[in-house]
Amino acid sequence: MRERIENTLMELIKFKSTANNIKELKGVVDYVEDNLRLTGLTLRRFEKNYKPSLLVTTRDTLKPKILFVGHLDVVDAKDEDFVPRLEGNRIYGRGSIDMKGSCAVMMELAKELAAEKYRGDVGFLFTTDEEVGSKDGVQYLVEDVGVGGEFVIIPDGGHGFQLIVEGKGVLHLKIVAKGRSVHGSRVFEGENALDKLFNIYNELLTRFPKEPCGDPEHWHNTINLGKVVGGDSVNRVPDYAEMYLDIRFVPPYKVSDIESMVKETISKYPRVDYEVLSSGEPVFTDRNSPFILRFKKIAEEVLKKKVNFAREHGATDGRFFSVKGMQVLITAPYGENVHGDNEWVDVVSLVQLFEIFRRFVQKEQ
Ligand SMILES: [Zn+2]
Q: Cα(287) to centroid of ligand 1, in Å?
């Protein structure tokens, strides 16, 4: 199996499947489809805004009991990063750990299940726009097409087999304040737009824990003022200003709770408005659910060591499934340098990932 996973992964790395390279995105999905066509599994191809996706299922359904989710797109890289390199137990190349390695495991598992005449209800979803927000991939498929699963496994997060069942939500906002411009010597006759934003920001800050917070995991809501625009001269009262906020929040908070909080604060100031630039609900799966406990037990058997739960500060594709009440588990093989130079994945850990997945789905027949 090791050799099969290695070969498949090296083929996947050769595709320069970056966000704007429509031809290569199509090419890499064609490759997966061609590879799995003869298995007799049900293959469904989707496309939105030139972003292709492929759903492979053991039964004829959009919602298998267990759904594995992977993305075949990668972030930009130098030409040489698309030439895979096997050195010892490592395969180097763009996308090796994020996450063509895990996609190779998913492909080989699909073939294995087909060969074994597997009778359970399992699916594999491959998308091509995760690195740019998943709007035309997972979001479209879950919200508009109805793709899902009772239990969704995303091998794209956490360090080396950590089990991630909780992830923070995100809300990106632009807040715009209007004022009245007068000379800087006569501020009493004007209305300072920047002042309003700073007051709002200071008031919002009181709703978030201050650092040092005492929690080594920082499992709490955070706010970042990322950008401020406004004013043009030292002796003028600005009549327009905008600020950009990046708010991250833990379950059970929802996007609507955070938005209400911002709305309430803003409403105290005249002529201030806001716009949601993007948002995502947090991920929450009960770590004592039977699915999670069984996965953990199998992972510990295969790895011959304890695996730990962890929490994810950044947003993942898990948010689209979790908000619909599906159970989500995020994990990953060993590897380093995600989005950087010399990205690699440990091949032994890919074989272990395969074995964990195989044993896990075997029990679901
Ligand atoms: Zn903290």
A: 22
pTM above 0.85, yes or no: yes
CB 2 within 8 Å of CB 351:
yes
Maximum distance among all Cα pairs of the chain, rounded to whole angstroms: 82
The Å distance, Cα 314 to ligand 1 centre, comes to 15
Cα 179 to ligand 1 centre (Å):
35
Spacing, Cα 213 to ligand 1 middle (Å)? 4
pLDDT digits (tens, 9 = 90+) for 84-107: 999 999 999 999 999 999 999 999
Find the angle CA(304)-CA(308)-CA(314) to the nearest 5 degrees.
135
Cα(220) to centroid of ligand 1, in Å? 7
2-166+282-362 under CATH 2.40.30.10, yes or no: no
- Give just the sign of the alpha carbon dihedral 139, 339, 310, 246: negative
Q: Candidates 3.10.520.10, 3.30.70.360, 3.30.470.20, 3.40.50.2000; correct CATH number of 169-280?
A: 3.30.70.360
Ligand 1 ion: Cβ-proximal residues, 5 Å cutoff = 213, 218
Phi, psi of 296 (to 5 degrees): -60, -45
The residues with which 47 forms a beta bridge, in sequence order, are: 52
* SS3 of residue 348 by DSSP: helix
